[in-house]
Design a protein that fits this description.
408 residues, eight-stranded mixed β-sheet, 8 strands
């Protein structure tokens, strides 16, 4: 209580609102109301005394005399209040979890406890909504772009080396969710691994959450792509000295990648907790989720898809990372136009995504696709941007090497 009064008094004396000031770090109701007015810009003692007890305000100023005109000490005081608030919120969270111990499943309680603790420790619940703070975000982006131009770059975000992404959204950018949709066996996972490989080779951090393939199978595909090795030969190359040497050199390079792979997370709470936990350890440049229809989040596929889409997008906004989400397409959409296709089970995934990408075989004749697969010919894949919150749509044909998985 004294520290709260001290901070308020110091703010009134300096007549300036600190950038890190929020109402949720104050526990006294009167102090919350005073700070709420201060955040609006009403810092002057005379103005505040028209709404609040002048004697109380004067007492705050007296308590805050030691902080007078020292912004550095004032910021430290606010940070101490934040720490106190976090501890109190953690105590409350732990108490509520213990109260529910006999009513809920242990796994569910542990998941909620972990998510809540991460949210409290990272200040993830605080959202800046003022016009000034939003304009500051745009200014920051402008400054970042100028820096990139001076360095010879032409994208704001991280290049994926897929021009259809880099040109339409200016690379991978914080808080964006990109959705790649396709029918079974077109190459959703292969596409995502190519994107991840390109990002990793730029020294960036990637977390791959697979709900379909094992960790070893995913890594085997990445080794094949990076080393230009036939996928099946990754396991059998030990009997061939030349192939094994290439495999070893590729593995040494891959060991330097900043990559985490998960394959045992299926509930949406587990996935969100993993995303927050990994971001808390070190900034993640790209999350990949393969694929969204396998996430358990509701009573049926429609409910699970809708909830998963919104929860992932909400998490990205809070942690400032980027995510590539893979989605299947319903068989009912096979004859639909590309512009009207949604992810299987719900339109929520398309609605939540900043970009919706459709992957399809360039050759509609299934016999021709089969012939190319049997003869190990490159498979042409059309990639179509059918939704983009930045306005630009696009179409481009890429080729997938059926032996190595490399797309070009």
């Amino acid at each position: 209580m004294e520290l709260e009064k001290c901070v308020i008094g110091a703010i009134i004396q300096t007549n300036k609102v600190p950038n890190n000031l929020t109402t949720d770090i104050f526990f006294s109701e009167i102090n919350k109301k005073i700070v709420s007015e201060i955040i609006k810009g009403n810092v002057n003692y005379i103005i505040l005394s028209q709404q609040f007890d002048p004697v109380y305000l004067a007492n705050c100023i007296n308590v805050g005399m030691d902080m007078s005109f020292s912004e550095n000490i004032l910021d430290q005081g606010i940070e101490k209040l934040k720490e106190q608030a976090k501890k109190e919120n953690l105590k409350r969270l732990a108490h509520e979890s213990i109260m529910d111990l006999d009513k809920k499943d242990v796994r569910e309680i542990a998941s909620q406890l972990s998510l809540g603790a991460l949210e409290i420790s990272n200040d993830l619940s605080h959202e800046k909504t003022s016009l000034e703070s939003i304009l500051n975000e745009i200014t920051t982006k402008q400054e970042q772009y100028i820096e990139m131009v001076l360095l010879g770059e032409d994208t704001i975000g991280i290049k994926t080396d897929f021009s259809i992404i880099d040109n339409t959204v200016s690379g991978l950018r914080p808080s964006h969710m990109l959705v790649a949709s396709a029918y079974t066996s077109v190459g959703k996972t292969t596409f995502s691994l190519n994107v991840a490989k390109n990002i990793l080779n730029k020294g960036k951090r990637v977390v791959f959450i697979s709900l379909e393939m094992t960790k070893s199978d995913l890594l085997q595909k990445l080794i094949a792509m990076e080393g230009d090795i036939v996928i099946n030969n990754v396991v059998t190359c030990g009997s061939n000295n030349v192939q094994y040497e290439r495999y070893k050199n590729t593995v040494e390079k891959i060991k330097k990648w900043d990559l985490e792979i998960y394959s045992e997370k299926f509930h949406i709470d587990e996935i969100i907790m993993t995303m927050r936990s990994e971001e808390n350890k070190k900034h993640v440049d790209l999350f990949v989720i393969d694929y969204i229809q396998n996430i358990i989040a509701g009573k049926n596929e429609y409910e699970s898809m809708t909830k998963s889409s919104t929860e992932i997008q909400k998490t990205l906004s809070r942690i400032g990372s980027t995510c590539l989400v893979l989605s299947q397409i319903s068989n009912d959409d096979r004859k639909a136009s590309p512009m009207s296709i949604n992810g299987k089970g719900s339109g929520g995934i398309r609605a939540a995504g900043d970009m919706f990408i459709l992957l399809r075989h360039h050759d509609e004749d299934e016999n021709e696709i089969l012939r190319k697969l049997q003869s190990d010919e490159p498979i042409p894949i059309d990639i179509i941007v059918t939704k983009n919150r930045h306005g630009r749509l696009a179409f481009k044909t890429y080729y997938r090497n059926p032996l190595t998985g490399v797309m070009y």
